[in-house]
Amino acid sequence: MTAITPEELRGLFLFESLDDDQLEWLARHGRVESFPAGTHAVAEGQPAESFIVLLDGELAMSRQVRGDEVEISRTSQRGVYAGATQAWISDAGAVSVYPSSIRAVTDCRFLVLPAAEFGPALREWFPMAVHLLEGLYHGMRTTDALISQRERLVALGSLSAGLMHELNNPAAATARATSALRERLAHMRHKLAMLADGSIDRTQLRNLVELQEVVIARLKNAVELTPMQAADREDELADWLAEHAVRDGWDLAPVLTAAGMDVDCLDEIADKVDPSLLEQSIRWLGYTLETEMLMSEVEDASARISALVGAAKQYSQMDRAAHQWTDVHEGLKSTLAVMRHKLGDGITIVKELDPDLPRVPAYPAELNQVWTNIIDNAAQAMEGRGTLTVRTSHTDTSVLVDIGDSGPGMSEEVRRRIFEPFFTTKPVGQGTGLGLDISYRIVVNRHGGDITVTSHPGDTHFVVRLPMTGTTESGT
Question: Which part of the chain is the Histidine kinase domain (predicted)?
Answer without folding.
Answer: 290-470
